[in-house]
Amino acid sequence: MNEALTNYLDNHRRTIQVELTKYIHELSIPEQLKESMLYSIDAGGKRLRPILLFASYETYASDFSKVLSSAVALEMIHTYSLIHDDLPAMDNDDFRRGMPTNHKAFDEATAILAGDALLTYSFEIISNDSNLEAEQKVELIKMLANTSGPSGMVGGQILDMQAELNPVSLEELENIHALKTGELVRFAVYAGAYLGNASKDKLQALNDFAYYLGLIFQVQDDILDVTGDSAKIGKSVGSDENNQKSTFPKLLGLDGAIEQKNNYVKKAKNALILADAENSYLMMLTDHFSQRDH
Amino acid sequence: MNEALTNYLDNHRRTIQVELTKYIHELSIPEQLKESMLYSIDAGGKRLRPILLFASYETYASDFSKVLSSAVALEMIHTYSLIHDDLPAMDNDDFRRGMPTNHKAFDEATAILAGDALLTYSFEIISNDSNLEAEQKVELIKMLANTSGPSGMVGGQILDMQAELNPVSLEELENIHALKTGELVRFAVYAGAYLGNASKDKLQALNDFAYYLGLIFQVQDDILDVTGDSAKIGKSVGSDENNQKSTFPKLLGLDGAIEQKNNYVKKAKNALILADAENSYLMMLTDHFSQRDH
């Protein structure tokens, strides 16, 4: 990875970490709830969604104060979805990024409520942001609820569960991931460009970009599950192979999955060119996400 | 109950039922998710919160189109909280209102996601309401997230869980219920009066009213658990006595709890007088809630 990108990612990770922590610390709430929320927020992760939001914004504008609340809200919603996903009734994961999952570190009831709290608080944060106009808040909240709710991420999670029991086609697999992962990516890209006052045409091109980028995320996840280094990934490799779940490598073979990924990368970059974003960090991030090793 | 109030409740229940169903039916989402959301929405309930919102609005204004989205959002959030509350990791209830709970009718994963979906969708509904100004939407979303999130209902649920293990004082019990039940009541009363353009003074008086009304809800629940008819309540009576949970009758005795309730009723009515609402349905509803038998 080139040094400019490394610095870029590090800087933006620091920014989002400071903001996330600040917003949770300023809550006057029961200690156990706060600790549980902070535990999963601090568990880190790559902060890819907020970074994408920042990068999308920076393609068109520069006053960072406008995007912090959306970036925080987005990462909180991503974090809540991981907490609920890990629950025994869902994926039943004991570890995430090498640390006990929320319900293991606390208990299931607390984990459910910490997830509910992060989800709900995310909307309050945007509604309270004094750097935004009312119209902007409404647009962001509408988009965030739409992409994370039943028509978006939550719908994708239901389809993903069903797909564990019944093999799906490539088209169905793309649809699952477009909802489960892609919709929050779409929010990230949209929110940044919208707040940066990008034109309607550019927003439309970025919408296509986000669709392919979401699929790149997922196909690379599937590829890493076959070829990756478990120490880097923070979970065991090969877990997809041991269950019935449909993945890109299972449907297309490993080489086919890599080819498919390269296809998505091409389409994503074409969309970036249409959005006048060929020299933006979005371009670099596309390569970064498609080549990441964890 | 007098006939005017019966008609009032029936009419408003019909209105909210039609709106709730309409909003869920218009979603293009996986069938299983939609069925699970509808199942708990249709499980009925008394719709006390939306009715309260309507009554608060009608105290000051009359164009009903402005309050429907808030009433729907509020009932969806209440419904999500029941779905998550009933989960095995939380209260572990198999039945609610005489019907299998959501995770019994579907499965735990679906129930968790249906709850998440209802919660998220509620914010989308308000943000999409073309009858409201952007400023109004932001105010409602801020208040709804604040009253239902970590500083409100979810915080109350954590405290309530902790109180099952450790006896609490009357003051602590009031605080738990003010958060767990009272905050959504506060939203109902506030949203209605706010959209009805009530003055700041009146909003402040109604805030006090809502606080006591929330406590009336809960103390009456506790009293019914001791004295109620299980066929009417739809769950077994005496369940509070069989666990360690603190209740008003346990802390004060049954007579003491009834006296405490009458105290709250007096304070609630005084607040209504200050809000120029002594001839409103809010007054009748206060008596109705304090005397309900299920």
From TrEMBL, chains A, B:
Give the matching Pfam families: polyprenyl_synt
Family from the record: Belongs to the FPP/GGPP synthase family.
Its EC number(s): 2.5.1.10
Q: Which GO terms describe its molecular function?
A: (2E,6E)-farnesyl diphosphate synthase activity; metal ion binding
**Top enzyme class of this protein?**
transferase
Q: What is this protein called?
A: Farnesyl diphosphate synthase
Q: Which GO terms describe its cellular component?
A: cytoplasm
So which residues are the signal peptide here? none
Q: Which residues cross the membrane?
A: none
- On whether Metal-binding is a keyword of this UniProt record, the answer is yes
UniProt keyword Glycoprotein present: no
Annotated SUPFAM superfamilies: Terpenoid synthases (SSF48576)
Its Gene Ontology biological processes? terpenoid biosynthetic process
Q: Which reaction does it catalyse?
A: isopentenyl diphosphate + (2E)-geranyl diphosphate = (2E,6E)-farnesyl diphosphate + diphosphate
Cofactor(s) required for function per UniProt:
Mg(2+)
Keywords assigned by UniProt, alphabetized:
Isoprene biosynthesis, Magnesium, Metal-binding, Transferase
* Alphabetized InterPro entries for the sequence: Isoprenoid_synthase_dom_sf (IPR008949), Polyprenyl_synt (IPR000092), Polyprenyl_synt_CS (IPR033749), Prenyl_diphosphate_synthase (IPR053378)
Q: Tell me which NCBIfam families the record gives.
A: FPPsyn
